[in-house]
Amino acid sequence: MAEVVGNGLKPFPTKKGLGEKKSMKVEFLGGVRTVTGSSTLLEKGSLKWLVDCGMFQGGKELEERNWKIQPYQAKNLSFILLTHAHIDHSGLIPKLVKEGFRGKVISTKATFDLCDVMLQDSGHIQEMEAEWQNRKGKRAGKGEAVPLYTMKDAEKCLRYFQSVNYDEILHLADGVKVRFRDAGHILGSAIIEIWVEERGQEKKLIFSGDLGNFDQPIIRDPSIVEEGDILWLESTYGDRLHKTREETVQELLKIVQEAMAHQAKVVIPAFAVERTQDIIYTLGQFIREGSIPPIPIYIDSPLAISATEIFKKNPDCFDGETQDLLSGGENPLDIPGILYTQTTEESKAINEDPGPGIIVSASGMCDSGRIKHHLKHHLWRQESHIVIIGYQAEGTIGRRIVDGAKTVRLFGEEIAVKAHIHTLGGFSAHADQRGLLDWVSHIHNPQLEVFVNHGEEKISMGLAQLINDRFHFKAIVPQWREKRVLFGDEEKVIPEERVEERLPSEESFTVLFKHLDRTYKRLRRKLKREKKRGEDFYDSKRLRQLEEINKKLEELEEELE
Ligand SMILES: [Zn+2]
Ligand SMILES: [Zn+2]
After folding, report:
1. 279: which residues sit within 8 A by CB, 6+ positions away?
2. Ligand 2: distance of its center to the CA of 36 in Å?
3. Could you write out the DSSP letters of every residue in 406-418?
4. If you measure from the C-alpha of residue 5 to the centroid of ligand 2, how many angstroms do you get, rounded to a whole number?
5. Which ligand lies nearest the alpha carbon of 85?
6. At what angle do helices 245-261 and 275-289 cross, to 10 degrees?
7. For the purposes of burial, counting CB atoms within 10 Å of the CB of 269, is it exposed (0-12), middle (13-18) or buried (19 or more)?
8. What is the pLDDT of residue 500?
9. What percentage of residues in the chain have a pLDDT greater than 90?
10. Ligand 2 centre from 351 Cα, in Å?
11. Which ligand is closest in space to the CA of residue 86?
12. CA distance 259 to 238
């Protein structure tokens, strides 16, 4: 296989002598014991880089981590290897660039194209959320909220991207080689192989990224990897078995036919990338085969519309079946009856149309975006069908619907859940337990070490146990911010006290200073009023109170030294 430095990429410089003799280190910055915030920091001598730089989503406690990014060492990083465009893998890149990252973000071309729209969309969401919090916060007298990053920041970060091809070995730095392989998860998704020189010996790290299923349409199957020393393995569905693709497709067909018979609508919350295109492909297949007549299919998500365009622009990532359809003059993503709705007016008009139809909208976990409006319209209708096809994280509205909630809260209103709720696991973009174990079984190295990541804690633990039992590989589930030495005889886990203190973000200070300013102003106003009150109000109790305040202020002043 040809060894190249892809598309004009020059090897990144390393400083000789700086910790060269020491073994490589890793720090788990995210995507451990949770499915979000995927990021791993690797250190080899003076060279530092990340694999993925994802955003944490799902609850205040997790999302707080998006602000504390000092451990990512933005300024000191040479590059970021990006497995794919999903926000839980790419979403903090704009923030890192904002904090001084000036290296390269290395990804496939399709991942770059998708990041172009997805990161800007994410910036837009951040801005909207800060605005909403400010409106709410003002009424509650709270400090000003700032967005994590803006659409502009997201646009700026794109100039640091560098696309590379699948299957080429890239010589990135002294003793560091990298190869992107197809992960079959979403368009452009990659498994990343990294060869590092360790005390004169070559060792290989494998990052599975998010692994896809073997029989999903449009994109290719995951590549098989046969060699490696340390594996980072995702575990989203490490505890579950999906139904087969064929069974799932038949189930969807039945749901659509039933809805048509009752003049009802089918609502499908879907991630804008991959799930939406997969559904378009499948519905197109029903129409091509004559199983259903062309009925209105609404793709109601501006991001999904952009993503579909990107799919059409990257046909080299398609599998054989889709390539055949294309060369036969048929684009499986252009089907009769499909309506792409861009504006909010068009979106609202969908529910005024009384006939049957299929609404595909984002977000996939029902927590934001236009899908919430469609759920509000259809959840309480007995004749409507809601089809859940993607992963629903803990704490999301989608998860509550799947778990059988009788009502859910949407736009401040309790909405009854009366519609037919279906969960179709076979459309998942993630391999199930069987798929993951099968993929791992191809690696022949009895000494293989496995870090199980990208999964809820219990699921990752369960999968690690299975891997230990079945293959006798050493599989462990790391902790968030755990540091380890990767090779060598040294003690592997770096003890807690050597983990440097987490530094708070600049934003936290800005917000706090503003709050302090306001408190201080209020205090000044109260004191002024006090002085004006006159002797009628002065008694010994008042004197003690003022003495007490004076003492406290002096103490506070000292504390700021
Ligand atoms: Zn993903
Ligand atoms: Zn993921």
Report:
1. 268, 270, 360, 389, 427
2. 7
3. SEEEETTEEEE--
4. 27
5. 1
6. 70
7. buried
8. 42
9. 67
10. 32
11. 1
12. 33
Q: Is the pTM of this model over 0.85?
A: no
CA-CA distance, 277 to 357, in Å (whole number)?
Answer: 17
Tell me the C-alpha distance between 519 and 512, whole Å. Answer: 11
**Arithmetic mean of pLDDT, 231-243:** 95
Residues 343-366 as b or e (16 or more Cβ within 10 Å = b): eeeebeebbeeeebbbbbbbbbbb
Task: Give the DSSP letter of residue 220.
Answer: P
Listing DSSP states for 69-134 in one string gives: -GGG-GGG--EEE-----HHHHTTHHHHHHTT--SEEEEEHHHHHHHHHHHHHHHHHHHHHHHHHH
- Residues 473 and 467: their CA atoms lie apart, in Å, by 6
Whether the per-residue pLDDT at 269 is higher than 80: the answer is yes
pLDDT at site 2: 43
Q: How far apart are CA 306 and CA 311, in angstroms?
A: 9
* Closest listed ligand to the CA of 453: 2
Rounded to the nearest whole angstrom, what is the distance from the C-alpha of residue 365 to the centroid of ligand 2? 13
3-state secondary structure of 507: helix
Cα(32) to ligand 2 centroid in Å equals: 11
Higher model confidence: residue 335 or residue 2?
A: 335
Tokens 């046969």 -> residue: 226
Cα-to-centroid distance, 220 and ligand 1 (Å): 15
Assign 3-class secondary structure to 543-556. Answer: HHHHHHHHHHHHHH
Q: How far apart are the first and last CA of the chain?
A: 62
> Distance, CA 363 to ligand 1 centroid (Å)?
14
Q: Higher model confidence: residue 22 or residue 489?
A: 22
Check residue 491 and report its DSSP letter: -
301 DSSP assignment: -
Query: Does the pLDDT value for residue 441 go beyond 90?
Result: yes
Q: Using CA of residue 491, residue 496, residue 500, residue 505, what is the dihedral sign?
A: positive
